[in-house]
Design brief:
Blueprint: H1 5-14, E1 27-32, E2 35-41, H2 50-58, E3 66-69, H3 83-89, E4 94-97, H4 109-116, E5 120-123, H5 128-134, H6 136-144, E6 148-156, E7 160-162, H7 174-185, E8 189-193, H8 194-200, E9 217-221, H9 232-235, E10 241-245, H10 251-259, E11 263-266, H11 276-285, E12 290-293, H12 297-305, E13 311-317, E14 327-328, E15 344-353, E16 356-363
């Protein structure tokens, strides 16, 4: 049986997760006479795209060989020269790609350039879903112009995220929390509300230990800029903390936070609250491809009700809190009729530990 070289390319691409942003994670292998002669994956610091790195390793063996790549080779000039040109110059005879590039600057143009040069081009649809999932945030950004927004929460089986009194301890296990760190590593930014910071004195850092191209941007919604300057998050700010307030916030609080190295974004919303839409626009302007929301009940509901959230990732633990005062994953006013419930689709259940699981699903957007 012939080896599945695209699986090798996908494994290489995964090595670039967190390191290639704001570019996609891409892997490539050059195969000649049934043997891999070149491998490559993209990292932002390395500059060279996966195809170029693989071709360099292959050297003269690339002539007449087959290139397996997880994403259509680019055809436009960016920070680097077009990869399609490098493929042609290397004398590659055949290109097998797992998916078309969703970037409007490419989107089939790379394939067309290769075919025009006489190269046989094949789309490997058996691995398209895996390739798209790997670069889900990149594809979403290219198609919508805004970051992919995911609400992550740890829940009891009855859907509670917090008890009415003290909340010391964890809902989920250490295994689940380690998995969350990997999710944070795949994210460009993370958002919470000031209430969560005051209650938990959280850091919101990426503690996966894996390399990334730029720091995880930590964002706090705080209309009155109440976040304590001595909190761990502020004390550990190194140009990676954004506090979102309103124009009604006291000027002395803003000055104190800015003196601590915190960036302040003024985003006035209804009823004196911050406007999450402005946050998403801010992230889009700076090419942050994804936003992970790890917040309280009210913020979660705002993101869902406003249709800013694109997906949910809920970690369930074998516990029940019960009661009417324990906080649900999404609070606020809620929908008043079952027929108006927010719908989710493409639901998947992921085992996490012996008695825990995660539910991943996508928000069905209302048609305007």
């Amino acid at each position: 049986m012939q080896p599945d070289y695209m699986l090798e390319a996908l494994d290489l691409a995964r090595q670039g997760v967190g390191r290639s942003r704001p570019n996609p994670a891409v892997g490539a292998v050059v195969v000649r006479n049934g043997a891999i002669v070149g491998r490559g994956f993209h990292t932002w610091s390395g500059v060279d795209h996966a195809e170029v790195a693989a071709l360099r390793e292959a050297g003269d063996a690339a002539r007449g060989a087959t290139l397996y790549v997880t994403l259509e080779p680019c055809s436009h000039q960016g920070r680097t020269k077009p990869c399609a040109d490098a493929v042609i110059q290397a004398g590659i005879a055949r290109v097998v790609a797992a998916m078309q590039d969703p970037n409007p600057l490419v989107c089939g143009a790379g394939f067309a350039k290769l075919r025009a040069a006489g190269i046989d081009v094949t789309l490997d649809e058996t691995h398209t879903a895996d390739a798209e999932k790997l670069n889900e945030a990149f594809s979403h950004f290219m198609r919508t112009g805004r970051p992919l927004v995911t609400i992550k929460a740890a829940l009891t089986l009855d859907g509670k995220i917090a008890a009415p009194q003290d909340n010391f301890g964890w809902i989920t296990s250490e295994v689940a929390r380690a998995d969350v760190q990997l999710v944070r590593h795949r994210s460009d930014s993370i958002l919470t509300g000031v209430g969560t910071v005051i209650e938990d004195d959280c850091l919101l850092t990426d503690r996966s230990g894996l390399p990334r191209s730029r720091p995880l941007l930590r964002i706090v919604l705080d209309s009155q800029l109440r976040i304590p300057p001595q909190s761990k998050l502020i004390a550990g700010a190194h140009g990676d903390v954004l506090v979102v307030g309103t124009s009604a916030a006291p000027a002395n609080r803003r000055k104190a936070l800015e003196s601590a190295g915190v960036e302040i974004l003024i985003a006035d919303g209804p009823a004196g609250r911050t406007d999450p839409k402005r946050v998403i626009e801010y992230l889009a302007e700076r090419r942050y491809l994804s936003l992970m929301v790890e917040a309280g009940s009210r913020v979660n509901w705002t993101m869902l009700d406003s249709q800013f959230a694109d997906k949910v990732l809920f970690y369930y633990a074998p516990k029940i809190l019960g009661g009417l005062k324990s906080l649900p994953v999404a609070g606020g006013q809620g929908r008043q009729r079952r027929v108006d419930a927010i719908l989710l689709d493409r639901l998947a259940i992921h085992p996490v530990s012996k008695d825990e699981f995660a539910v991943e699903a996508y928000v069905v957007k209302a048609q305007n």
